[in-house]
Specification:
The protein is α/β, with parallel strands linked by helices. It has helices at about 35-45, 75-90, 150-170, 185-190, 205-220, 240-255, 285-295, 305-315, 325-330, 335-340, 355-360; strands at about 10, 15, 20, 50-60, 70, 95-100, 130, 145, 175-180, 230-235, 260-265, 300, 320-325.
Length: about 375
C-alpha cells in the first residue's frame, strides 16, 4: 500500500515521495522577472525534502498576471531567471514544476497585503482585464473586463503554448495549467462568468471549448514523456454542487482523452457568493470521486497540512499526491516533521546530508 513517503512515477518522472508543494504566489517579481527572493525561496523549499515543487502562477502574457508583482513567462529575460530556479530545485532532489496562468477578470489587482482589490483604473500600474464575457467578479474586484473577441481567444491560446515552450526550455519537467480559482480558464467553463452566445459559450460543450483547445495546443508542444497537469475547481459550493461536479468530471475526462496526466482538484472561486465547507481535508472525498469517475490521478492542496491527514489521503486512495502549501511556509522542512510524526525510520534523511547527518546523530535541541 502506498503512503506519503512512497515514490511516485508519472510518465518518465519519478518523485521521491508523495509530498508536493503547490503553486503559492509570492508577488515579489518586477516586470514578471524572478529575483533573489524567488531563488532563495524555491531552493529552500526543495531542500526541505518534498518530491515536487511547483513554481507559482506564472503569467503567459502581461495582462494575465494577477498583480504587477506576479511572475511571467513571455520573454527571454524571464525564462533565463526561471532556468536558475528550475536547476536549483532539481539539484536539491525535487522535480521542478511550474504553473502557467492567465488571471482573466481577476487581473490588475493589488498585492494581498496592499488591499487584494482591483488597482484603480487611473493608476498607471493598472491594465484592462479580459474575460469570456463583460461580467465583473464583484466584491473587491469590481472592474468590468472586456469580453474577448475570437482573435483574443486565439492569441491567449498561443500565449499558453509559447509559455509552455519556454517552461520546457527553462528546464521544468512538470507543467501545470491553471484552469482554476475564477481565473480565465475557470471563467470560460462556468455559466456564472460565461454568457457568450458563440461557439465558446452557452452549452456545457461550448463552455468547455477554450480549455480543451488550449490543452490540445499545449500537449502538441509539451513532450509526451513529461507530465502535463492542470488545476481546476470542480465544485463551487453555490447550491448547484452535483450539477457542477458532474459537468466537471465530464470535462476532466475530455482533458484526459487529450493528454492530461493528472488533475489538482480545487474549488472554483468563480463568484464570491458561496458556502465553502472549510475544514481538514474537506476535498478528499471530492478528489477521490474525480479520480475514480474520470480515471485520472489526482492531487489536492486544501487542508492536508497535518501529516496524518496527508498520509491517510494517500493510503485511502483519495489522492495520488498531497499538495502541502502553507505548512511549508511555516516550516520549509515539513517533510522531516511529517516523517517524525509518522514514525518513519531514519526520518532525518528526508533532508539533505548536511542537515540529516547531524539531526540523526544528536538529540534535537528543540526537545531539551
Amino acid at each position: 500500500m502506498a503512503d506519503l513517503f512512497s515514490s511516485y512515477q508519472l510518465k518518465d518522472v519519478t518523485l521521491r515521495n508523495r509530498i508536493a508543494i503547490p503553486p503559492m504566489c509570492q508577488y515579489m517579481a518586477e516586470d514578471g522577472v524572478a529575483n533573489d527572493w524567488h531563488k532563495a525561496h524555491y531552493a529552500t523549499l526543495a531542500r526541505g525534502g518534498s518530491g515536487l515543487v511547483i513554481v507559482e502562477a506564472t503569467g503567459v502574457a502581461p495582462e494575465g498576471r494577477i498583480t504587477p508583482g506576479c511572475l511571467g513567462l513571455w520573454n527571454d529575460t524571464q525564462t533565463a531567471q526561471l532556468r536558475e530556479i528550475a536547476a536549483s530545485i532539481k539539484a536539491a532532489g525535487a522535480v521542478p514544476g511550474i504553473q502557467i496562468a492567465h488571471a482573466g477578470r481577476k487581473a490588475s489587482a493589488n498585492k494581498p497585503w496592499e488591499g487584494d482589490d482591483h488597482i484603480a483604473e487611473n493608476d498607471p500600474r493598472a491594465w484592462q482585464t479580459i474575460a469570456p464575457s463583460a461580467i465583473a467578479f464583484g466584491g473587491d474586484l469590481p472592474r468590468v473586463p472586456n469580453a474577448m473577441s475570437i482573435d483574443d481567444i486565439q492569441r491567449v491560446k498561443q500565449d499558453f503554448v509559447a509559455a509552455a515552450k519556454r517552461a520546457l526550455d527553462a528546464g521544468f519537467e512538470w507543467l501545470e495549467i491553471h484552469f482554476a480559482h475564477g481565473y480565465l480558464g475557470q471563467s470560460f467553463t462556468s455559466a456564472h462568468s460565461n454568457q457568450r452566445t458563440d461557439a465558446y459559450g452557452g452549452s456545457f460543450e461550448n463552455r468547455s471549448r477554450f480549455t480543451i483547445e488550449t490543452l490540445e495546443a499545449i500537449r502538441a508542444v509539451w513532450p509526451e514523456n513529461l507530465p502535463l497537469t492542470a488545476r481546476f475547481g470542480v465544485i463551487e459550493y453555490d447550491g448547484k454542487d452535483e450539477e457542477t461536479l458532474s459537468e466537471s468530471i465530464q470535462l476532466v475526462k475530455a482533458w484526459r482523452e487529450r493528454g492530461l496526466d493528472m488533475l489538482s482538484v480545487s474549488v472554483g472561486f468563480t463568484i464570491p457568493e458561496t458556502n465553502i465547507p472549510w475544514g481538514p481535508a474537506f476535498l478528499g472525498p471530492i478528489a477521490q470521486r474525480v479520480r475514480n469517475e474520470a480515471g485520472i490521478p489526482v492531487s489536492s492542496a486544501w487542508g492536508f497540512g497535518a501529516p496524518s491527514l496527508a498520509d491517510n489521503a494517500i493510503r485511502k486512495q483519495e489522492l495520488d499526491l498531497a499538495m502541502i502549501g502553507r505548512a511549508h511556509l511555516e516550516n520549509p522542512h515539513w517533510p522531516y516533521f511529517a516523517a517524525k510524526q509518522l514514525g518513519k525510520d531514519n526520518a532525518a534523511w528526508v533532508l539533505p546530508a548536511p542537515y540529516a547527518h547531524w539531526l540523526a546523530r544528536y538529540r534535537s535541541p528543540t526537545l531539551d
